[in-house]
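From the shared-data thread, chain only:
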Amino acid sequence: MSKKPHSVKVPTQYRATAKILKAALEQQKCIKTLIFAEKHARTRSLHTVLKKFSENRVAVEKAIEETGLLRDNPSFDPSLAKILVTELLFARKELNGESKPVQTVRSYKDRLLNSIGDFGVQRKEPNPRYVRINTNLYSLAEALEYLYSEDWRRKELPADASYADFLTAIKSLEEDEFMTDLHVEGVLIFPPKWSNYWVRHPLVHGKRFILQNKATCLAAELLAPPTGATVLDMCAAPGMKTMHICNVMQNKGCIYAVEQDYKRYNTLCDITEEAGCAIVKPIFSDALDLTPERFADVEYILVDPSCSGSGMQNRMTVCDEPKDDRRLQKLQGLQIKILSHAMSSFPNVKRIAYCTCSLWKEENEQVVQRCLQLNPSYKLLSCKKALRNKWHNVGDTDYPNIGKNVLYCLPESDLTDGIFLALFEKRREGEVD
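Structure, as tokens:
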């Protein structure tokens, strides 16, 4: 006897994905962190469906509303409905299993398709796929040899190529071409159509290749701790920038990687171990509780605090996020506390990098301005000069001596996520502006 639809369970993958979407919508949690924490589900499938939902969110919600799917089925979990509709219309174009929710969405297929029509089809061209080589486990030479063996062609630029030349070259990548990045050693650039190919690639699952947006790689590039240095990553989870710093240091020295959320801390431990980061020492703690006595040897600090994430909306947003002044004020207060703590509490620090995935001045130029006022022993370095002046977007010139020195990565013009970066250096004794 076959089971009745209501007794057949919804496939685990759909339930896990709906759970993540619900948490992201209701609790304003980071989708990528939630995916990393989902140990019992295939992260590739989770990422793919959630990305498809973010790209087609308005169309999915419009289709659900116009067909009356949730009105006709009041017990249907809204997050699960959004995932199933996304899978049916924009991802695999079919649904697995015979559970009641799956059968219900299938029965609405024609109406859902009629509702969306051509809505949402015309989207902006996606940015390229960035793949960073984890040099703990794999060398650039090995990566290039592998790519050539798979018939990839490397597109090279002349030595005197400008940043504009570089961006033009990325936009004109042929289907079988890749490039190496202009700014960050070990970052490979592929046409956008290969994004899902790399998500499921064995070299990615083996942590030899790391899927990391070029913009977030600039934090380690600018901090530039030498081999053998001692580094403090104050807000480290999930660990992408920690891994990159480890690569920059050639896995020699010490990196204290701090995280106060237990689940994120466990994710940090797992990822850095899998990536062969022998010098990383994960620490379960609030960054503001770190004492100078315990970390007196720290020379370089990365401060990548909680932020609004406004710069990441180009890639995977699940709800409209209008500017929330009250939330920004709270975030700014925390950001100032953490960055100022980094500047004032560790006697042997030489350089600090401050990074957010926000495009709001409240979390960026204003935080930098206040922390320099509170800590006059530090000065700003020019991020643009550190990138050999091969960059376009700097900060707001309404902030004297700050705007010209800080850096923005902007999705439309830099073909990256939206990121802000500032670089501080301890003044020599007696040094003034």
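The mean pLDDT is 89.
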